[in-house]
User: Fold these one by one.
Assistant:
Number 1:
Amino acid sequence: APSTMMYMNSQYNHPACNKLLLGPNLSRDGKHLSSSSAVPKAPKAPEKPLMAYMRYSKKVWDEVKAGQPELKIWEIGKIIGKMWRELPSADKQVFNAEYESEKGEYQDLMKSYHNSPAYQSYLQAKGRADVIEAENRALERDESCISIEPADDGAGDTDEGFSVKHVAAARFQRNHRLMQDILTEPTIVPTGRSIVTQQRYDILKNQVQSLQKHQQKLQDELEDIERSHAGTKRKWKQQGTKFESEMKILKTITPQEFYVEYKKKQEQQRLLREEMEKKNKEEMEAKAEEERKLAEKAAEQKEGEEGEIEKKESIEEEKEEGDCKNIKELKQETEEMEINQTNEDSKEEKVAETEEMEDIGHEKEINSKEPTEEKQVDKNKE
């Protein structure tokens, strides 16, 4: 049955730039493929063994994540990397041994995988698909001219692995696309990839600023290096000039004159050295004197502070002694007052007792006088 095709425009692109072809046995770029040219999926290969670091990371990942759940993935990876670098060699050797043992098994599995019938059939199908793709690229190589070439009559498949109908369909698709590219308007709607969001713009802006700062830093370092190099170069030039002048002088004088000049230089150096030593000694003595004065001042200040502290302590002790004396005097006064009070109370009690005794004796006297008087009255009556 003839293949039916339909064009679908995407929501961003102009139809002249990007066309989606719908139809049986059509690839993304419009080529007519047969069922024999479709590349099958490769059989699943054996899994590669994990490296020693990945094994260690897999082992401690959950532990680190549980200990610090607020960290991000890259921060956890940074911590695990530091732990791996600080891990002893003996512990690392365990993970390396596991990797090496599994690596040998993996190599044996890969050999059997490459020799398996499924992988060999996959390679053959991939080779056929590569041949067809190369032929299609050869057909589309000359895109500058527009022509519809007649297809040669023939039945069956060609020796190259594709039929005459497939070649005719590919040529038709190519010519149709070229004609539409020329006849359509040149206005093109921008794709979605060219639209930059504000978030993406901010990220790019921060990256540009970071690169500018890094460039400025490198430029400053380069200027420092150049200044250092210029100073070193100037120093070497001065030393070279001085050496040349000394050589010229040596060429013009005799050995005796050179010996005299040498002695003079030695004497000058000795004097300079003695002067420097004297100056250093004076500076050290002045520094030691200053330190001694500071130490004496600190000692005097410390003694004054200690004297003030002792004075305060003595004043506090005197206050405490005075308070104790006052307390003792008050205690004695209170005791004396209590004793006096008790004595007065006892005197009052004795006085009260004597008064009571006197009252009782007076009453007895009165009572004893009354019957005698009554008896006298009775006698007088009689």
Number 2:
Amino acid sequence: MSPDYYQDLLQRYLDGTCSAQEGEELFAWLASDAGRKPLLEALQREYKGQEEPHPAGAAGDRIWARLEQSTRARRPLRMYWTAAAAAVLVMGVGAYTWNRYERRPRPTVPKEPIAVQDVGPGGNKATLTLGDGRTIVLDRAAEGQLTRQGGAGVVKTGAGQLAYTALGTGSALYNTISTPRGGQYQVVLADGTHVWLNASSSLRFPTTFTGKERRVVLTGEGYFEVAPRAGQPFRVTAGDMTVDVLGTHFDVMAYADEDRTATTLLEGSVRVSGGSTGSLVRPGQAALLDAGTHQLQVGLADLEGAVAWKNGYFRFDGVDLPVVMRQLSRWYDVDVVYQGHKEKTYEFVGTVARSANLSSVLKVLEINGVQVKVEGKKLLVTP
């Protein structure tokens, strides 16, 4: 079974809705790995011998307190899925169900508002810049046709989605869709290509594709599902990297504050060029272009991690603290300020929903010795 299955099982156990057989299955899974021992012991202490379960929120707080105590006693500098499964599992459940628990009516415990110093997650926010320089704030625009641009109709099809439809007349114009920090958006281009934009990203594209190639320019990060079109290859320029495709699914990460540009291929085939070299990339591989040396390397990819943002969650697989904080900065629209020295080395592993408030995400850092404080739009970090 996948971790998601046991996260759901734990949620229902805390809520008192799982069957006795499911409870036994959950405890057997927790007992099967030594790294899950803190969570298993905490659950046993909370519920053993009690006929009625505690409210989910109260139980979660007590379990968290005991997890923090046991974890801090070890003072780990590296958080593995196996060695800290309890912390990550609770974090996953908390991120997935925290708001749900808070919204559920309780007879004796009033609903608590989001803390003043907490930060809510990002959402569907973007600005469309038209060929004549006019702008449309998409998250404020009503659904339906927004305008007509150079032979294409521009339609907002739903929350967080924009679509271009070729009308067959008029010359192509260039439009740009831009997401701010804390924003994401989807756009379907006139050829049927579907693009997801991550936070703090932009895509410049023609309203219709009439030349020998379909060329777009990306900053930040985007996931592409390219519509095949024989004789008209699709080309993405992202900084110093160029990706040539015929029809495929891939992710391009080209943030200016990262030390490399990455193209990760899920389906099809692409040719990636960077610096003075180029290479074919096959499904399951990633092409990495070093920002300093401009060297291009191709190797096996973490496919799930590359598209986690598109699927609605953060996935950390052995990444260090600055990588985590840059992702949080973009999605929660906060500025990260480091305090004190940064000699410690951390490697974080885990999965957290992007729908969680920032305070929920920070618990994973805090139980591993990273002190974090939110002050307005600043995130003060003491490694």
Number 3:
Amino acid sequence: MKKFLLILINISLLAVIAITIFYFATQHTSIFAERNNYALNKTLNVSIREVLKETKREKLAEIEVKGIYFTSYSAASSKKIDWFLNFIKDSEINAVVIDIKDYSGKISYTSQLEMVRQLETGSKTIKNLPELIEKLHDQGIYVIARQTVFQDPELTAKKPEWAVKNSATGGLWHDYKGLAWADPTNKQVWQYNLEIAKEAISLGFDEINFDYIRFPSDGPMKQMKFANLEGRAKHEVMKNFFEYLHENLKDEPAYISADLFGFTTERIDDMNIGQIIEDAALYFDYVCPMVYPSHYPSGHLNLKNPAAHPYEVVSHAMKKGTERINALENAKAKIRPWLQAFDMGAVYTPAMIDLQIKASNENSGFGYLLWNARNVYNYAP
């Protein structure tokens, strides 16, 4: 009898051991899920928990954005950021636009994208971008990433087969500033810019502002050669690109906006650059016409110097743009203009900035962005 009980006990112990081994084998992943994957952490330079936290965030509730523009160099300066936060106290400014890819094509932070790493189109200008965004968010600032798209000397130097070509020389085409352009008809260029936008969103930006989403406007125009333009109008190419961005970013936790020439609010043609405001209004959350009074020619609205008449110029542009968007069935976008905060054609005083804002507000402008290329701001509305 004792021998039988001993055998029974041994069998029971073996069963418990077997069940325990099976449990650990099958539950290993969940048991140790809290441990960080240090190899992946090193690759991403961010903890897995932080990555999961960012990917799970939701799009902010919409606000009326009133912001100013910063280059990546300004954004990289803690002194400049502290100045900005102090500067906007007691003002209505609630947003900042930061270059993540400017006219040079250089990406302003250390990107983890394979293509960027391979082509070495990234930089370390902004060393701690997620921390910067978090600091701004902590102060209630809405943070916008500005991404220059088709004007891209950096990408075209590394991938000349993706560039606008010069039909006369066979080499890269350059505009009058000496800058090369990526080919707007090349869908590999589209994908490259899409991946940068997605990465910027994953880092915490609230909105991606796409600039230079057009064909070149100056240079030896007759010598431009595109890979896939034949049989299509330029505005058709750009409309397809706008739709591409929308379809691929609509589920991301960020808004998207389009910078447009100021004249898009008034002109019904694409001005040979592919931009028609109705096309953009179908696919972006915000269209941002650059209605700088100094950029309108003498004689516009019968004004000898439009720069000296900010209210009249902005009011007319916004009225026309709003009418066109409102007349569009299934329009998605609100109109949020870029306004002039720099001296050109006239000295832009606080009163002149206020007149532009007044003109925009009176014509259904949903917020505004102030532009000064040197980031020298003397007035916060």
Number 4:
Amino acid sequence: MKSKQGIIFLSLLIALQAFSGLMSATVREMDRDAQAYFDKKEYNQAIGLWLNCIELEPDNERIQQKIELVYEIKQQKDLTFQKARLNYRIARRKLAMDDDRELELGITTGRTAIKDYVTAFRLDPKDGDMRDSMDDMRRLEEDIRNAEERLRLSRAMRARVEALKVEARTEMALAEPDFVKARDIWNRVLRYVPQDSEAMEGKRRCEFAIENRIKFERIRAYMARGVELFENKEYAPAKGEFQQVLSVDRRHREARNYIERID
């Protein structure tokens, strides 16, 4: 009887050792796959496999250390990304101002935001939030370049540019504007500030009017009615007038801005 019990015990021991060896082999395989994901910075897949390893071998300190490392990386990424988003919002607000000090602060803050974003992106490039914010950071970089260009202008030059803009706006607001003259003025603005968005749009509208006089008159009529309706808070018919503008000139920035304000 004792002999039979011994044989049964020995069989169970062998089976347990075989199962333990199988689990160890499974853990090693999952660890190898997880490490490959980690090396490619695919942290969610890596940590999922390492957590499975811990379920099989709860006392495996080496796997525990790897899990802790992933959490540390993701926490560092989250903190850095939050700083980048905060500085992004501050920078965009500052860069829209005309004061030189505010512009300089916006440039500095914006550069910090981009630097932190790049750091966070390198930590976890597969993160969805990081990819969603990429376009925002590109726009911020463009805003910074425009602000730097504005700062390079002397106060006297900026005053001259603003005077030219006023002259061009006044000409275009006349009942019978001279669009050739207005275009020439906008060109003079662009010689000072090549990327000035208002001047580029003004020049485009002048050229459109010169080439499409009848269409431009229709646009002026639609815009006049739309603005009047908008000011009277009749937003639905106002939106219709602005959409008529876009049906003639789909790039008309002022009409698009009004529609965005209504929506």
